[in-house]
């Protein structure tokens, strides 16, 4: 493996995912729920941005100046194409961390994001990042970091090492990464199938190995087959980040803030009896068997009074980002599936059903007659946001200013959908981030932008676009028996798009 990769898989591109936790707007609700002052992100940086979808979305949909690097030049090239299309204020590089982090022109940052890199890089690179955060994060600034952690990965570590070692030592000369992955998975199955006592002692590993067979090979390459790979406990990560004067603020996963769906009453009581907040995080990881953490850390945590916290929460604005009828009254936490209290959640959803922006304070007034307490209402907002039904909304002035760049990037993403379904994101200046939209729906949006005025015209446009890339619409999960049958399906989908999805996209200012 060449030196410039630093031991990281480079022969297969990373996936084109969008990660909402990198949206600085989302920090506010999480910090306020935890009782801390949140930062306003005027400048932000993502280290290891992959294909750059998240960085570009957040640059186009906000007034934040974004910077970032990814060592892989093909990924950086794709990200730079998106940046050129939007014209947003974003500077993207294809440099290794030690090169990028010593650039003298970089500003001080309000927000630094590391999604999916900490567990897969060397200690030397971790030290570079910690030093960068120490020097470049403003006082009061936040860091988002996601990483594989213990104890959830404890049983899987030996199997991962076996997979990686087989891929390195046993592959035939010239084999690419995908054949090596397939061969390693097959070999591991043989080992466990031979009656290996490791498999008997760790039955969960057997089921996880079977699950790996069906997963995207791009994901598996970057998750399991890097040279460096280390699931790290919360306490160990804390030791690293203390060098940068960081304090743990809260989870970036909103559902983690809701103990009722994750912890039994006895577990909640046990955690309350622990005086050290950091140790509570370690113990909680054992209770829920955490294998992946998404956390916000802050340089200089400042606690809010209860009155300040409540007043700040009341000023937050939200919008419903899915059709009202699609929101179920079920939520799945560490304890399994739970039923949401419809007496609380139904009026909340009714209030936001118009897909307009409303403040938490206005929501309070709307449900006042139902006697819903403030903390119960806050919990409902956290759960609905965790389910991606609600999302925080930006100020009207910011929405207006970001609309042109967001629209230009959406046009690029819709045009990209003509030949691939790799990118699911579409930019909403309302939420300062993205919602996921399928390839066909992107093409319907592109059809409207190209002048289609009826479901029939839109359907033909979509059929032509798919045919140009060697794809056809499925009818009942199967290839259509005739062109007429495919057109009937395209028209049906076009009507559904116009009646159900298009009003939502207009409310979120998603245009192309």
Helicity, as a percent range: 40-55%
Q: Overall pLDDT, averaged?
A: 93
Tally of strands: 14
Radius of gyration: 24 Å
Distance between the termini: 41 Å
Biggest β-sheet strands, sense, barrel = 7 strands, mixed
Low-confidence stretches: 1-8
What this model shows, in words?
Helix 3 packs across helix 18 (396-416), helix 7 (177-193) packs antiparallel against helix 9 (203-213) and helix 19 (439-449) crosses helix 20 (455-468). The chain has helices at 25-34, 53-60, 73-86, 97-100, 123-136, 157-169, 177-193, 197-201, 203-213, 217-224, 234-241, 265-272, 277-288, 306-315, 342-352, 360-367, 374-386, 396-416, 439-449, 455-468, 483-507; strands spanning 43-47, 65-69, 90-93, 109-114, 137-148, 247-251, 292-298, 317-320, 330-333, 336-339, 358-359, 390-392, 425-428, 433-436. 48% of the residues lie in helices and 13% in strands. The strands form four sheets. A seven-stranded mixed sheet has the order 3-2-1-4-5-7-6. A three-stranded antiparallel sheet has the order 11-8-12. The chain is α/β, with parallel strands linked by helices. The longest helix has 25 residues, at 483-507. A hairpin with a 2-residue loop joins strand 9 and strand 10.
SSE topology:
Blueprint: H1 25-34, E1 43-47, H2 53-60, E2 65-69, H3 73-86, E3 90-93, H4 97-100, E4 109-114, H5 123-136, E5 137-148, H6 157-169, H7 177-193, H8 197-201, H9 203-213, H10 217-224, H11 234-241, E6 247-251, H12 265-272, H13 277-288, E7 292-298, H14 306-315, E8 317-320, E9 330-333, E10 336-339, H15 342-352, E11 358-359, H16 360-367, H17 374-386, E12 390-392, H18 396-416, E13 425-428, E14 433-436, H19 439-449, H20 455-468, H21 483-507
């Amino acid at each position: 493996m060449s030196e410039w990769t630093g031991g990281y898989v480079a022969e297969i591109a990373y996936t084109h995912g969008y990660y909402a936790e990198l949206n600085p707007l989302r920090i506010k609700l999480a910090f306020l729920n935890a009782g801390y002052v949140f930062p306003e992100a005027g400048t932000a940086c993502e280290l290891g941005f992959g294909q750059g979808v998240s960085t570009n979305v957040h640059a186009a949909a906000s007034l934040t100046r974004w910077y970032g690097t990814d060592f892989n030049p093909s990924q950086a090239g794709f990200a730079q194409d998106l940046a050129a299309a939007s014209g947003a204020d974003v500077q993207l590089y294809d440099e290794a961390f030690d090169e990028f982090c010593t650039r003298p022109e970089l500003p001080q940052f309000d927000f630094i994001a590391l999604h999916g890199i900490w567990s897969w890089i060397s200690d030397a690179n971790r030290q570079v990042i910690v030093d960068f955060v120490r020097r470049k994060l403003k006082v009061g600034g936040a860091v988002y970091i996601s990483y594989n952690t213990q104890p959830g990965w404890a049983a899987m570590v030996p199997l991962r090492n076996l997979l990686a070692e087989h891929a390195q030592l046993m592959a035939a000369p010239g084999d690419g990464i995908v054949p090596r992955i397939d061969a390693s998975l097959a070999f591991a199955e043989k080992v466990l199938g031979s009656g290996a006592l490791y498999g008997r002692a760790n039955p969960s590993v057997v089921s996880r190995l079977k699950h790996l067979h069906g997963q995207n090979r791009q994901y598996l390459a970057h998750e399991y087959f890097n040279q460096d790979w280390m699931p790290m406990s919360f306490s160990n990560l804390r030791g690293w980040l203390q060098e940068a004067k960081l304090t743990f603020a809260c989870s970036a996963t909103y559902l983690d803030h809701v103990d009722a769906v994750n912890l039994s009453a006895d577990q909640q009581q046990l955690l309350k009896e622990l005086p050290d907040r950091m140790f509570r995080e370690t113990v909680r990881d054992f209770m829920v068997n955490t294998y992946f953490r998404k956390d916000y850390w802050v340089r200089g945590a400042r606690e809010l009074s209860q009155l300040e916290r409540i007043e700040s929460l009341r000023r937050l604005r939200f919008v419903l980002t899915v059709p009202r009828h699609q929101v179920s009254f079920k939520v799945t936490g560490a304890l399994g599936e739970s039923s949401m209290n419809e007496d609380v959640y139904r009026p909340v959803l009714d209030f936001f059903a118009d897909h307009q922006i409303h403040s938490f304070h206005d929501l309070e007034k709307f449900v006042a007659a139902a006697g819903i307490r403030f903390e119960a209402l806050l919990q409902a907002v956290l759960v609905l946001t965790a389910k991606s039904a609600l999302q925080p909304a930006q100020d009207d002035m910011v929405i207006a200013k970001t609309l042109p760049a967001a629209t230009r990037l959406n046009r690029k993403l819709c045009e990209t959908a003509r030949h691939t379904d790799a990118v699911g994101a579409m930019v909403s200046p309302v939420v300062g981030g993205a919602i996921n939209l399928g390839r066909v729906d992107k093409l319907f949006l592109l059809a409207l932008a190209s002048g289609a005025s009826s479901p029939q015209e839109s359907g033909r446009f979509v059929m032509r676009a798919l045919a140009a890339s060697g794809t056809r619409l499925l009818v009942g999960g199967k290839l259509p028996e005739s062109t007429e049958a495919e057109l009937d399906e395209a028209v049906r989908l076009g009507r559904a798009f116009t009646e159900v999805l298009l009003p939502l996209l207009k409310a979120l200012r998603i245009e192309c």
